Structures are given as structure tokens and as C-alpha cells.
Amino acid sequence: MADQPIPDAESVEPTPDGATTGEVQASRTKEPPAAHTEIAVDIANLTKVYGDLNAVDDLTLQVPRGSIYGLIGPNGAGKSTTFAVLATMLKPTSGTAKVFGADPSKDAKAVRRMMGYMPDVLGLYDGLDAASYLDFFASGYRIPRRKRKELTGSLLELVDLDGKAKTQVSQLSRGMKQRLSLARALIHDPELLILDEPASGLDPRARIELRDLIRQLAGMGKTILVSSHILSELQDLCTDVAILEAGKLRANGPTETISAGSGERVVTVIFADGARETFTAASDDEQVELLRRLIVDDGRAVLSFRSDAGLERAFMTMTEGIVQ
Ligand SMILES: Nc1ncnc2c1ncn2[C@@H]1O[C@H](COP(=O)(O)OP(=O)(O)OP(=O)(O)O)[C@@H](O)[C@H]1O
Ligand SMILES: [Mg+2]
User: Fold this and answer.
1) Pair (242, 268) in one structural domain
2) By the number of CB atoms within 10 A of the CB, which of 16, 41, 61, 149 ranks highest?
3) 84 C-alpha to center of ligand 1: Å?
4) Are 148 and 139 in contact (CB under 8 A)?
């Protein structure tokens, strides 16, 4: 998928691997778009066609400002393609996408100022160490030289790479490259972060730290658009989710609503004596009643009571395993 965009594409030198040239050229629109809208990302009838394949198929969805919005879907669902359009790296075949009112394919410069993009793969930047890599992108965002050292230092610290400042990017582990990519996306303190599978390749501790960091960034008022296959993590993290399959939107809305879905939930109960039993419940009320019955009527010591209502179940119900 696409590499990272550079904010003022025409104002910086090409990257070491020449990877900055997106399919979309930055326009020279002077007027910054209004950033007071309550909708951070507004996608309407977005379609991206490759040959006879609809990678994104008439997608319409809105990402509320300040939300942590999860895009989930099987391999090939169109998540990265959608992100690449929003990140100014790819032109849609039809339909529109707006980032705080600005169209990525018409006003790339404005979008790049407001948006930080962490792609699913990090381009190769042979010859640069981690600190110089961030410094290079900081210069692209026209951050003055005197401020760059402190900025890159604090970003490396934020993603726990301060010990690797002088290590060549090509010599970083996969998870470290992911973290460096996240630091790069944050360099210009964007209002919107687009994170394509940010947790992939991260060890458990780094995943938990990433989740905390995303929450922290959302707490600062940023809008986060994130894709992942680790649904249990998105469940805890995201305020809203959209489920995509074969380029089409299957469901979207607040995470709780999508997770609750309809139909029976399987409830797994573990008792203090080590016994493990499963029950079914059709609603929250039935779950409450089940718990009451077990404890009050039956006098059993319940150690853990877990319903499988969640994104995984919604995902399995709403997708059919279509591969195009
Ligand atoms: N440059 C391209 N040329 C042709 N087809 C493409 C191109 N990029 C993506 N596709 C196709 O578009 C569809 C959507 O791909 P995309 O990468 O957006 O999926 P995804 O949801 O991000 O999947 P994953 O979970 O595997 O990352 C796939 O069928 C893919 O093969
Ligand atoms: Mg992808």
C-alpha cells in the first residue's frame, strides 16, 4: 500500500527512496478549510476500482470528531485503500471523501496539515538513523531546525525508541519500525490520525502501550481512525466501528451497539471451585437474571462471568468470508 505523504510536497526534497510522490498532487489552495465541523471525516459513495475489482464499493460513512473509530474487515476488505484515499495517496474512482471539510484529492496540502498517516508498511529509508528520519519529516513540515532536536527526542521517547535514536532505520525490528512510523505520523501534531494496523508486529507490552497512547491522544481532542485485526483490542479502545467486507459497508455505529448486535450471546461462567459452564442469554436483562439466579437462588460462588457479545461475534455474523 501507499507510503507516507509529505505535507508540503513541493517544498521538500524527495525522500531517500523517492517515496513521497503520492498519486495525488498537492494543490495550491490558500484558504484553510473550516476545522470546526463536528464530523472529522465524511465519506460519501466512495468507490475505488482496480480493473474489474471494486476495492471500495460505494462506501458512505462519517467519523465523528474526537472519536476513536475502528475500521474492521477481513483481508482485502478495502480498509487500506480507504485510508490511502483519505491520506491523499490515492485518487478515488468516484464519490468523495472530506477531512475536516477538505477533499484529499483536491486539497492535499490542507489535508496533510491536519492529518497524520501511519501506513501499513514503512518505506525503506536506508542510510538514515531513527532520529534523522524524524528530523527529515519534521523539516518537511517546516518545523524550524532549532525546535527539531527537542521534538524528535520527545517523539522517540513517546514511542519508547529513545535508545535507538542513532540506529539505522533498516536495522530496527519490525515492531520498532511500526513505532517509528507512529512517531512520524505525530510530528506535526495533527488533529486526525489515520493508523493502518498500528498494532501489527508489536509485542504485548507495546500493544498495551499503543492503546494507552491512542487513548491519551484522543483525550487531547484528536480524532483517531484505526484499522486492526485484533478485535478484542478495538472493542476496548474504539468509541465507534465500521465493518467492511469486499469494499462494502456491512455495519457501523457506536461500538457498544455493534457489539451487542442481535441474537443470543454465549455466557461463560467460572465458579470458585474451578467449574466452568456456559449459558445462553438473549439480552442484557437475561444476563442480569442469569447472574442473579446463579448467586442468589443457587448460592454458587461465581468467580468470573463473561459474555461473548462483542466485536468478534458481530464480525463473524456480519461478514461472510467473501474474498474478491
Ligand atoms: N494497487 C492495487 N492494484 C490492484 N488491486 C489492488 C491494489 N491495491 C489493493 N488492491 C485490491 O483491493 C482490495 C482491497 O485491498 P486493501 O489493501 O484495501 O484491503 P484491506 O482491507 O486493507 O486488507 P488487509 O486486512 O489484508 O490489510 C484487495 O482485493 C486488493 O487485492
Ligand atoms: Mg490493509
Assistant:
1) no
2) 41
3) 11
4) yes
- Same domain? For 206 and 89 the reply is yes
Decide if 318 is inside a domain.
no
For the whole model, what pTM was predicted? 0.81
- The ligand 1 atom at the shortest distance from the C-alpha of residue 77 is 21
* Residue 85 domain-assigned (yes or no): yes
Domain identity same for 146 and 232: yes
Host domain of residue 295:
262-308
- The verdict on the CB of residue 81 being under 6 Å from ligand 1 is yes
Which domain CATH number covers 109? 3.40.50.300
- Do 238 and 270 lie in one domain? The reply is no
Query: Minimum-distance ligand to the CA of 120?
Result: 2
- Domain-located, residue 3: no
Domains in the chain, number = 2
- Name 8's Cβ contacts closer than 8 Å, sequence gap at least 6: 26, 109, 112, 140, 141, 142
Q: Is the CB of 235 under 6 A from ligand 1?
A: no
Per residue of the chain (324 residues), give pLDDT as tens.
545 665 554 333 333 333 333 333 333 333 444 444 699 999 999 999 999 999 999 999 999 999 999 999 999 999 999 999 999 999 999 999 999 999 999 999 999 999 999 998 877 676 899 999 999 999 999 999 999 999 999 999 999 999 999 999 989 988 899 899 999 999 999 999 999 999 988 888 888 888 998 999 999 999 999 998 888 778 889 999 999 999 999 999 998 888 876 566 778 899 999 999 988 888 888 889 999 999 999 999 999 998 766 777 778 777 876 666
Distance from residue 159's CA to the centre of ligand 2 (Å) = 22
- Domain shared by 150 and 115, yes or no: yes
